[in-house]
Amino acid sequence: MNYKQGRYSKFIKPLVGFIDLIIINGATFIIPINLSNHYLFNFYISILWLIISVKNNFYEVHRHTKIIQITPLLIRQIIFYAIILYAYMGFFKQPDVGRLALAKYLLFITLLIWSFKFFTFFLLKKFRAILSGNGRKVIVVGKNTKTRQLINIFKDNPDYGYQFKANFSINDVDFSLDKCFNYIIENNIDEIYFSVAELSNKQINRLIDFSDNNLRTLKFIPDNKDIFSKNLKFEYYDYIPILSLRKITLHEPINSFVKRTFDLVFSTLVILFILSWLTPLIAFLIRIESKGPIFFKQVRHGLDGQEFNCLKFRSMAVNKNTDDLHVKKNDMRVTKVGKFIRKTSLDEMPQFYNVFSGDMSIVGPRPHMISLSEVYMQKADKYMVRHNVKPGITGLAQVSGYRGEVENDLDIINRVKYDIFYIENWSLLLDANIVIQTFLNIFKGDEKAY
Is residue 124 part of a domain? Predict the structure, then answer.
């Protein structure tokens, strides 16, 4: 659980997208195009620019992307943007906007967007090659023509940012996957590449389980095209085909931006209009019944296994077992006020502060106590996959009957299955559905809310 991946690069794409929005909106104030409603136009172009970008994969420029692959992205983006630009003039009837002025605006933002796109592309390459920044430590399992070619690509292209560390040969007398796993953990390896042709199904399954349970990225080099699947992420490193086992939707910059925006807006509204008056009320009730702090803070595992302080309204009398002993039915530590706020889930409300600060999300896998996480890792396979996204106040498992106390191994196994399904199938509509079901469950009541 101590492994922490340095994924600051996840902020690069949202930042680039934000600057592009500044360019297309700022240019409307530089190039006079006689708009009747400036704010409506800026809102219109911002939303549709993001939609076009998603459909066009405009920001899917990876460390191994070639410059020749960027040019078609730019051309398609500008063509589609020009279409929606002229569509606005016709749909919203802008008689004062001249076609020449619009053409000047389009040419101006095209030059700026293209210049900025290539600037960031080459800047990141220099950053990786010269300063060794934005890097990924990698190993390769297997020794054949394709693995040798891939290793050469890593070594010959320092601008990709892949730091090749070791090559494990299946044919070596002392080879074992356990030895490979120990090396990965001891050297904080980020990505594992392996040749499908050289490993048995049992070995592949062990690699998959290890990468899932230790938050490592696993990619494999196919021996033939029969293994290609639409459920796998397929990409080329020069001429070497590489497949990723799991594509996590929320790792896509646009999806991450949408979810974070939803979290910020929702949490801000709750803090301003609910917690502003609810907190002093519950604080008064808690203090009347028992001495101690109003808020209960507990260290839990969040994104990438990082620890954070999860907030709750205190529902128990102050005791020394809060970090080791999970609340059970008819737990004597729970106060009278605590029973009420736990039954109605009001004790979870301070976690909106966690959402606002970025430690949590409205919807996601529920974070567990540190001591319980260590236990659950042994009981539920792929438990660590839950930590690929931020933990949530509520989640798919919770609205599907797996909230509260884990009474047996099947409870945590099924909870993990629901969490992984959510991670691999996230959508804003799914989040909204879970929020609505959570709200309804507060009034219907939940037998495991104690």
Answer: yes
